[in-house]
């Protein structure tokens, strides 16, 4: 009999879910979000005039690195052998950068947390690199838009 998947042990304490009985399957997750800013800030990013350097390039790398370290950041999250991480940042005039992360692996648990972490850290990096010119930026609408694999199969956001 397969053990019940839960974040609680027999004493009701928080614990990492035991996924040892689950089969390995190909799993994918996509998350999206955006950081909204003043149009002048987006123009500076697009023109490469932010004093800290290539904002979108650095944020892309930060998102990739964060996805790989998700288990260090989120309590009870499994460390995973991710096989693919792609983080894309796209200027969305007049006042935003859209962020998308795609994560893949073959394993016993999904990669939704890794995709969400990648998007969030990429957005935070944009904020950090641009805060000297725009402290009013907002990080918005971070959510999973696709997941596939595992027992629950494929799910897409409406």
Automatic annotation (TrEMBL):
Q: Which UniProt keywords apply?
A: Lyase, Molybdenum cofactor biosynthesis
UniProt keyword Ligase present: no
* Name of the protein in question: Cyclic pyranopterin monophosphate synthase
Q: What does this protein do?
A: Catalyzes the conversion of (8S)-3',8-cyclo-7,8-dihydroguanosine 5'-triphosphate to cyclic pyranopterin monophosphate (cPMP).
Please indicate which superkingdom the organism of origin belongs to.
Bacteria
Q: What does UniProt list as this organism's lineage? A: Bacteria, Pseudomonadati, Pseudomonadota, Alphaproteobacteria, Acetobacterales
Enzyme Commission numbers on file: 4.6.1.17
> Which GO BP terms apply?
Mo-molybdopterin cofactor biosynthetic process
Family membership noted in the UniProt record:
Belongs to the MoaC family.
Organism this protein belongs to: Falsiroseomonas bella
Alphabetical list of HAMAP family matching this protein: MoaC_B (MF_01224_B)
Q: Which gene encodes it?
A: moaC
Q: Where are the transmembrane segments?
A: none
